[in-house]
Every structure is written in structure tokens, then in C-alpha cells.
Amino acid sequence: MSSQPSFKQIPIVSRPKSTPRLDLLRSMSRTGFVLLLILIPVTGVFRIDVSSGFVVFNHEIWFSDFFIVFGFWLAAACLLIIMYSSLGTVFCGWACPQNTFSTWANRVTARLLGKRALINWGDEDQAAKVSSGKNHWHNWLLLGLRLLAASMLLALLPMLYFLPPDALWAFLSFGEDPRVTGSLYWIYSVFVFITGANIALIRHYVCRYMCIYRMWQHLFRTRETLHIEYDAARQADCEKCSFCVTVCPVDIDPRQTATFDACINCGECITACDNMHKKNGTPGLLSFKFGRRLDALDNDGRFSSPSLLSRVRWVLPVLALALGLLSWGIVQYQPYHLSVYRAEMLHGDHTRDYRINLANKLYAPAEIRVQVEGVPPEHYFLSGDRVEFSTVGRKDLNLRLEGLPKGLHTITVRASGPDGWQGSFRFQHLVEKG
């Protein structure tokens, strides 16, 4: 026989299939969500007007637009429940701004002050320790400036939802705008302080102990939701290694996850484990998984993976109702509003003056015409027969009734606007003495 080794004796190493790196996908997801939060108010998709309600695609949505408001929030709640039941805390790890900027702050701190300089609230064994080689004033200054700059930018995000872009620009450029008051700068300063304290000191402590959103998710989380799965059959491959625990942002052991824990499904541990085993050409021991956990066997010993439909079927009828209400509200939406009310002016012992209130709910120019029915022209005075709007807003017309005979008079005010809109308001006027 030949002294050369046979081909069968040559070890064959099978490498895992090439897949997109989780860390890249995670970064893209987090960055995309932050950009989405900025684009939503800037493009007019959604904004909050404290004086009237919500602004959606440059349409004012008042709280009186019940079907739109109630239908939208009911549909949003149903979709969140479906996400909780299927994907668990994936929003926390892949989209939540709190986690995104806490992770960024951790990386900046570790790069400037050392890997052990991170604050770990509630764990005295892992107290923050600044690296002796990086404990210099310029590193501290650079860290402080970066955190301050990030806080100032982040504090603008909530203001985008309460101020239109032109008003926010006037705020930033110290321009003249009636919507920008001196108190707004104090409010912004408070936002900067709270945001700075958050990303400088608190960070993932919110995710671990303070996040109301995560606690709410636990009401709908089951043993079948998306979770981190550990391949216990290969546990010998991870002896003397705890890299997954080290990189976990919420300080849990990903190898021992439970139905209710602080895991945010970010996948940092999966990336770390894959990187450790990549040099050996073997896959990591951690992965995302739907279905029962390894400690939850059926009576016959086999794993069960109930369908998503079986876990959310009770939500689907409610979601259908919500979408129906929302659709009906959109169809019945009124872009303009007409109302009539008594003016606080007495003539003798009765009121003769009324206010005709007209509202434009669109961020666009409009002209609304008004006419009065049910009373002869010689018995009323109208301050104008039309109202012009340059944008969203409210305007009043004065209506005075004079010389009407004794009795109860039914009067109708009609209004007509662009695109064929018609509105009417009927009221009764009592004349006790002719």
C-alpha cells in the first residue's frame, strides 16, 4: 500500500451557507427607523397640532372625527398585539430609538474610555472602570461633546411632531415667527437635559427595568414567539466561552432564555457566537427560532409549532372592525366645518347676534361662501358672504337679526366650498316681543 494518506483520511470542513450579517441588517434597520421617525412629520404624513388634534397628509383630524381616530388607534393596537404574539420584543432590538442610541453611546464610551467604562446599574461586580491608558481629559471632553451634540439633535425629534417644518426652521435660525415663543427654548433645553442624562447615564437600564412598552409586550408573549434558541446538544463547543453573555446589552445569558425575560431579540449574541465559530467553519450555537422552546415538549415528546393564525385569530375580527371604522371615517371626512353659536351681546332682554364659525381643515388655500335661509333679507345683517383662507384655520362672520315678528323662527345657514363641499347648520331664534 502507498504510504500517502487516502482521500478518506483528509478531514472535510463544511462551512455554513453565506447569509447576510445580522449586525449589518440590524444597523440598517435601526438607522432606517430613525430616518422614518424624522421623515414622517417633515413630509406631512403625521403631526400633532395641540390646538386641534392630529395632522395626517396635511389634513387636520379633529377628535370629533371619531371613526378615523378610534379606528386608527384600534387597528394600531391590533397590529401591535399580532407583532407581540409572533415576533415578541423584536421592535426593541431592531427599531427602538432608546436601544439604538444606548448602543451607540456604549460604543463611543468603550472606544474613548475603555470597554469596562460602561455603567452597569445594579451589578457591583461589574462596576465601571476607566482604562488607565485612556483616562485623559481630552477623551472625557470628546465624549462629553459627542453626547451633548447627540442630545441636542435628539431633542429636536419630538419638536418635529408639534411644529411644522417652517416653524422649526424659524426656531433654529432665531427667526421671527408667532408660533415660536421664548418658552419654546426652555422646553427644548429640558428635552436636551433629559435626553443627555438618558444616553450618558441610564441607557439600557430603561430596557431592563423601566420600559413600559416591554412590560406591555409580556402580556401577549407566549412560548411560541420568536426567541433565541440555544443548541444544547453542542454545549461542549462553548465551554470556557461566555462571549454571548459579554455582548448582551441587557446582561442576560442568551443560552438560558425564558418566556419572560429582558431579552430584546436584537441578535447581538448570535452575531458574537457566529464570529467565534467562523474560524472553525462551524455555525454558532445560537439562532432565532419560532415555535416551542426546547424545554416545552408535547406529551408525545415531539416539538409543536402552532401557527400564527391560531394565536392571533381572536384579534383578526377586531382588526377587521377597526379597518372598517377607519375606512368609513375616511369616506365621510369633511375638509371644512360650519357651526353657529350665540354671541355674548344682549339687546334689551334677548340676543340678536350670532357668530358663524368656518374652519378650513386643509393646509391649502380655500374660499367658502355663506348664505342665510329662513329669514327675509331685510331682517338680517351678515358681515360677509364669503371667507378666504390661505391655509388651515378658523374665521367668524357676524349675523344680526332685526325686526322679526314675535315667535320662534327656524334659520338655516348654508356654506359651500371647493370641490363641491356643502355644509348647513340649522338653529332656532326666539322673539318674545315683536
Chart the SSEs and their pairings:
Blueprint: H1 22-42, E1 46-49, E2 53-56, E3 59-62, H2 66-87, H3 90-94, H4 97-113, H5 137-154, H6 156-160, H7 165-172, H8 182-202, H9 205-210, H10 212-217, E4 227-230, H11 243-247, H12 268-278, E5 286-289, H13 308-312, H14 316-331, E6 336-342, E7 346-347, E8 350-351, E9 353-360, E10 366-373, E11 380-382, E12 386-389, E13 393-401, E14 407-416, E15 422-431
Antiparallel strand pairs: 1-2, 2-3, 4-5, 6-9, 7-8, 9-13, 10-12, 10-14, 11-13, 14-15
Helix pairs in contact: 2-14, 4-5, 4-8, 5-8
Provide a descriptive summary of the structure in words.
The protein has 434 residues and is an alpha+beta fold. It contains 14 helices and 15 strands. The strands form five sheets. The chain has a four-stranded antiparallel β-sheet, with no helix packed on it. Strand 1 and strand 2 form a beta hairpin. The N and C termini lie far apart (132 Å). Mean pLDDT is 84; it is low at 10-19 and 295-305.
Could you write a compact summary of the structure shown?
This protein is α+β, with helices and mostly antiparallel strands and 434 residues long. It has helices spanning 22-42, 66-87, 90-94, 97-113, 137-154, 156-160, 165-172, 182-202, 205-210, 212-217, 243-247, 268-278, 308-312, 316-331, and strands at residues 46-49, 53-56, 59-62, 227-230, 286-289, 336-342, 346-347, 350-351, 353-360, 366-373, 380-382, 386-389, 393-401, 407-416, 422-431.
Q: Features of this protein?
A:
15 strands; alpha+beta; 19% strand; single chain; 434 residues
Percent of residues in helices comes to 25-40%
Averaging pLDDT over every residue, what do you get?
84
Number of strands: 15
Count of runs of 4 or more consecutive helical residues:
14
Alpha-beta content class: alpha+beta
C-alpha end-to-end distance: 132 Å
Order of helices and strands: HEEEHHHHHHHHHEHHEHHEEEEEEEEEE
Q: Roughly how many Å is the radius of gyration?
A: 32 Å
Low-confidence stretches: 10-19, 295-305
The main β sheet shows up as: 4 strands, antiparallel
Assign an overall shape: elongated
Q: How are the strands of the biggest sheet laid out side by side? A: 6-9-13-11
Strand content: 15-25%
